[in-house]
Amino acid sequence: MAFNFELPNPPTQNVGTKLGEGDLIRRSASSVPAPARQLTPVAKLIDVSKCIGCKACQSACLEWNDMRAEIGTNVGVYDNPPDLTPSMFTLMRFTEWVNPETQNLEWLIRKDGCMHCADPGCLKACPAPGAIVQYSNGIVDFVHENCIGCGYCVKGCPFNIPRISQVDHKAYKCTLCSDRVAVGQGPACAKACPTHAIVFGTKEEMTRHAAGRIEDLKSRGYANAGLYDPPGVGGTHVMYVLHHADKPEIYADLPRNPRISPIVELWKGVTKYAGLTAMAAFAAVGFLHHMVSGPNRVSPEDEDNAKRLTGSGPP
Amino acid sequence: MTAYDVEPGDKVHRGDPVTVDRYATGARINHWVTATCLVLLAISGLALFHPRLFFFTELFGGGQNTRAVHPWIGVVLFFSFLGLFVRFWRANLWKREDGTWLARLRDVLTAHEEKLPEVGKYNAGQKAVFWLMSILIVVLICSGLVIWDQYFAGYTTVEQKRLAVLIHALAAIVIICVWIVHVYAAIWVRGTIGAMTRGRVTGGWAWRHHRKWLRELVGGEGSRRTTPAE
User: Does A149 contact B at CB distance below 8 Å?
Assistant: First the structure.
């Protein structure tokens, strides 16, 4: 079946939601029963070589999520706002790069936002049960009513994506428009993209479509064109086609081999269990010591000695 | 004469039994403010440390409130402990007999006080608790500020925050273990808790556990009343 660029228009009848509690495969700080069905993994593919930097995706994102970005100030670059914010889930990051081989100035524009990792660091770090969930189609979503605003997700994320709101103290990031996907739609950014640089479908379709794009780029001189679907985080459900896939860092510091930080793994892994074990062991040793040796009581002789020392009683 | 480990307010009262003032009212209030903070911090911290303990957040009015209040309790504890530090640091300086005492830990744990050197107001174990608490509280407040995102998120990188959160967790585990030792010792050695509730211990308690301190208190009054044999 040929992949269709055009996302369907919104349904006019109630189609029911296709994404629910029963489709969770991971839930932060808690466990979920194995889902009864496996949804087809989805993916958003961002073809950096086709992006014209129009920011329609940013506008569509703000509109769909009903958010208003604050009026900012020009910081001398095209990035607007200059960084992701609690109300700006996606951001075009512009890089002017001189290709050392051709001496050409290349304008690299990468749409930054949540990558929807198969192994999400945010979810691993989150201490609040159910504040971060992962659906069997690959979407990683924040459930704001459970969020406590601790910022652990920020530490867990290898891509530096979540932002904590100073208004309601909750974490925000791209939802991959889980609410739209639930009713058979695609993400708002993909719907708005005028050049089809952003496309959405099943992960399999997207990978296949990317292969075609990469082949095309290679035929036009981009020998190192490739797909960014980093295995260090188990692959992602937002992928990039990069014309210089051998140098991901030139695209506004896209990490070469992202993975959950070993520090976070240590903190959320062995420390968690060893810590509670150590505390329990100290308490248990104290209890056993008391059982074995009994209380350490002051004897009448000690009191007599004190009296003698202070000269306050008969020896 | 003022011995290094006789603190203001320490005083012997003759009688039957002999009583010894060990902690003045200010020191006791200071201690219990610190203790309350430490317990609240441990509970709220553990709630965010292990999912199984997340239910502790209910004690603080939910996760959001726990997250918001924990660092502030930490600030109160820091300054409260600073008060304890100023009061107690001199008497907690390491002395020669402390090494001997520590080397005979087996005799300590089997309550063979007669085999232990005479110690001042604090024994080596208490001094270890004091210095460990001091160091760990500094580590905890420093690492805690780095991860206090509500006010200080912009001052450090994410990588520094990751390191800080790990250090914070490790230091918290150690300080809770130190706290368990501290509380257990106070329970095991009968007659100790009164020092921090009413401020007094009996002369026998001081003779048994802190004889050097008792001698200094008695000697400091002018006339030494020790028998020649001692």
Answer: yes
Domains of chain B: 25-190 (1.20.950.20)
The H or E element that residue A198 is part of is strand A198-202
pTM of this prediction exceeds 0.90: yes
CB–CB contact A290 B187 (8 Å): yes
- Asked if B206's CB is within 8 angstroms of A128's CB, the reply is no
CA distance A127 to A99: 44
User: How many other β-carbons are positioned within 10 Å of the β-carbon of residue B78?
Assistant: 18
Of the candidates B227, B230, B221, the residue with the CA atom closest to the CA atom of residue B14:
B221
> At A179, which amino acid appears?
D
Q: Residue A264: list chain B partners with CB under 8 A.
A: 162
Tell me the C-alpha distance between B145 and A142, whole Å: 25
Bridge-partner residues for B69, per DSSP? none
The Cα-based distances of A29 to A122, A177, B50, B122, B136 in angstroms read 11, 23, 8, 43, 27
CB–CB contacts below 8 A, A to B? 171
pLDDT for res A1: 41
Nearest-Cα residue of chain A relative to residue B44: A127
Catalytic residue among B70, B182, B209, B210: B182
Q: Do B177 and A263 touch (CB under 8 A)?
A: no
Task: State the fold for domain A21-259.
Answer: Alpha-Beta Plaits (3.30.70)
CA distance B127 to B122: 6
Q: Lowest-confidence range among A278-282, B95-99, B162-166?
A: B95-99
Interface probe for B, chosen from A132, A153, A253, A302 (most Cβ of B below 10 Å), is A302
Query: Which residue in A290, A230, A231, A233 sits closest to A259, CA to CA?
Result: A233
What pLDDT does residue B53 have?
A: 97
Q: Is B50 a catalytic residue?
A: no
Segment A232-253 mean pLDDT: 97
Cβ neighbours, 10 Å, residue B117? 17
Interval B39-81: pLDDT, tens? 999 999 999 999 999 999 999 999 999 999 999 999 999 999 9
- Considering chain A, tell me which residue range(s) the CATH 3.30.70.20 domain(s) occupy: 21-259
